[in-house]
Design a protein that fits this description.
Oligomer: homodimer
Structural class of chain A: alpha/beta
Helix content of chain A: 40-55%
DNA sequence: CATGATTAGGTGCACGCGCACGCATTCACA
DNA sequence: TGTGAATGCGTGCGCGTGCACCTAATCATG
């Protein structure tokens, strides 16, 4: 079965190809009556542009902007970034130019500054994550004024307007971590390791995951103690001493969970203080975390396909925007994956 | 940066576009010297055809054939099939016609018959899985004679010629299943449930997985007994009675593994004879298996992205064949995934 | 050496679309 | 009523390929 072309639509509507083109792209210069005739013909013939021909003919470069946290090599957002790069390659034929912008997770003003730059760029679409409620909300409203669609990656604010989202259900991921930490066991006390942050400024993005974790433990082991332990990522000596202090204060604790993505920070301590009885669970398959797992220091990692997620989001978002179609699924909750020493090699 | 076109290649090689075209598609009618000049120019300019323009210009329909086991709705190969369908949609602009052929897993002659039909069709490429060593080998040789490339899905024969493979490492998956069955526990005896087959005719495709499972148990629990229990998929009453018989003969066994994909066959028995102390592990996220997991009858499922795997294989294979490029990675070992009650909802 | 077949290579067109340009007709306003 | 601007619509070209068709040179053969 042959698909309809602009020419078919034009013939059916009794106009020329140029007019059909103007209607499709809302370029104006068409009378209301004609617009409706053309729309009708498009609907009747179920016309949609041949993507190959579009890409070939259009010399226009579709500019998209992405605003995510700045990061070091190997960190969580670095892997997200890779996924975007990879997705970009998949849609080369769409002539997409993806501009990356990075903000400082501890500085809401840096987010605002980058957001302003993006607004000036007037891209066809924007991807960002949910961090500073206030700043993201402002940004979202301004984008809406300019009719620029927006997508959330990794986490989102449900009350804002966005086209598409891709990420895991963080509360559920916390529950899964707790399940794996305690499966087939009796548990009396659990240590939950957090990273100190300049937390006055913004909501901790890991909070929902932590809540899932805590709720699961409380539900299934109501008599168990949950200790929270803060470590400072900027100093490895301070990490070791924090861990030492905790371990000697609570020698009975065998179950450790790191609810953020940086389990690798305590890998050295786990190695230097190895205890075969200890159970350790972490999140996200960063290279450092995987290394710790291969060394037998970690029992389970809860993760997901991080680059796959950003890849998926980008390619779908771009397609939606370029061909002005609504997303098939707005909220894409990615599948959580469990890694153990037996399946942690890519 | 502009990508090179055929025209650029032609200019560089000092020939015309038509000659470049003949070289790329091996249409002959070009002297050896010129062929090399053109190849050289292609390499230097890192030329690859613009997929949009190719798709637009080519009216040719690329016919591919796929030969996999016949199946019922919801079974393993049904999910594989879905992945192919989905992949086909992603590459609509490539004008691919994928013809599906199905054989009877218990009848090597049915494989031969379908293979013969495919040979007559002369497709651009063939996808199949490794089942009947003899028949697949014959098929592979005949395809090679016709210069038709071949891809393996799910499992493979390493000594045959194929372009690309996609599947899990089955031995490793068996090990992972054993690990999850026994993690954090002392194990004295294990039941391994198999499906009776017309096993004289062909090698059991699940053998490597079973070996991985058995080896892991033997390595980590040398004193543990491993019992093998056969069930007959065609009769649910016989399944129940087999299970009953085994359970009363070996009441001490708490660890059950189903090493094929049909854990769902014993779901009813597990429910009717529920034992909170029992640990159950299975393979593959078929709908029936997931249902059993949601009902709390199964502790872990080892699986992978089944449709994703076939989708990936198809899209890459087609691209390789159409643009006559070698695959980036020939052996694609897909990541194994662990499902528990906490992450078994899509 | 004549003749036809074969080999090596070039050229033109169509694919479906985006977009720049061009040409009428109508409208606003002096 | 004349004139320039705005409106409504049609046409032609080019994007990079694939492929059918054409030409010139070479070769085999009697």
């Amino acid at each position: 079965m042959k698909t309809a072309t602009v020419y078919d639509v034009a013939k059916r509507a009794g106009v020329s190809r140029g007019t059909v083109d103007r209607v499709i792209f809302n370029r104006g210069r068409v009378s209301q009556k004609t617009v409706e005739k053309v729309r009708e013909a498009i609907r009747e013939l179920n016309y949609s542009a041949n993507p190959s021909a579009s890409a070939l003919a259009s010399k226009q470069i579709h500019c998209f902007a992405c605003l995510i946290p700045q990061h070091q090599k190997g960190e969580y957002w670095d892997v997200v970034d890779e996924g975007f790069k990879h997705g970009l390659e998949e849609i080369t034929f769409c002539n997409v130019d993806l501009r990356m912008y990075y903000y400082d997770q501890n500085d809401i003003e840096s987010y605002r500054k980058m957001a302003a730059e993006i607004l000036e760029l007037r891209p066809r679409g924007v991807i960002t994550n949910a961090v500073f409620k206030e700043a993201v909300t402002e940004f979202s409203y301004k984008l809406k004024d300019l009719a620029i669609p927006m997508a959330f990656i990794d986490n989102k604010y449900d009350d804002l307007d966005f086209d598409i989202y891709c990420g895991v259900d963080p509360y559920n991921s916390g529950q899964l971590g707790a399940y794996l930490l305690t499966v087939h066991q009796k548990v009396e006390s659990v240590a939950m390791i957090r990273v100190v942050r300049d937390s006055g400024k913004h909501a901790d993005p890991n909070a929902p995951r932590r809540h899932g974790f805590v709720d699961y433990i409380a539900d299934h082991f109501p008599d168990s103690a949950i200790y929270t332990l803060f470590i400072d990522p900027s100093s490895s000596e301070s990490i070791a001493s924090s861990m030492d202090r905790f371990a000697s204060a609570h020698p009975e604790v065998r179950h450790y969970a790191v609810t953020n993505s940086r389990l690798f920070l305590i890998a050295n301590w786990l190695k230097d203080n190895y205890d075969p009885e200890r159970v350790v669970v972490g999140f996200d398959d960063l290279e450092g975390n995987l290394k710790a797992m291969r060394e037998g220091l970690v029992d389970f990692l809860v993760t997901k396909d991080i680059p796959g997620q950003s890849n998926y989001l980008l390619t779908n978002f771009v397609r939606n925007v370029i061909y002005s179609q609504p997303p098939k699924v707005k909220n894409n909750y990615v599948h959580m994956d469990v890694l153990s020493k037996m399946n942690c090699n890519k």
